[in-house]
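Feature request disguised as a bug: please show the residue count (214) next to DUF4919 domain-containing protein in the output. Example input:
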Amino acid sequence: MKNQFLLIILFCASFVSLAQNSTEVVVPPFKDTYCELVKQLESGETDINYQDFRYQFIESKQFVIASNKTEESDSLKKAMYACMDNSDTLGVIRITKQMLSIDYTDMMAHKILRQTYKMIGDTANARKYKTIQFGLLNSIVKNGNGQSCETAWPVIQVSEEYFILQMIDAELQEQSIERKGGLCDRMDVKIDGKKKTYYFETTKVFEGYKKLGL
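Example output, currently without the count:
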């Protein structure tokens, strides 16, 4: 049992080292549905159920690993923006793929990656990552209208909420939890100076917290 535990640690350590030095997305080394779907998406087979894919991320061991890499993910994001400011397209590609090696449901990473591939004329990869980005996005915003807790957009991570608000140019004014009609985050925002409210269904977020022991 002890030897098996040591082998798992070494296996994960080698995966982390590979992810840090690779210019490609490294598929996590777990034989679960999430990892198999990451492998499928990276191969260009993008016709999947994206909501199920996001839910499978919570069930995967990779979810726990990603949750323990918050500081690394934040550092990668800062490095990504620095590369963008310096027009370092190869650096952007390398860093966003490191981000996706941690969490392949990261819509921001997919967005920046597809924009960068478009910039350098790689239309095939630009098309692939655009399909994945909007597959993930639509699996949220096409499941409800976000106008009430009963019709809230279903998210698995709070970061998805902020990405969507950024996509619609919404300036967050106040965030609160609402339980009338479900378990939701209520986001009071301003768009073009006008007040609006959006609701995000957070049952899966709290399932994730429970898995992490929070």
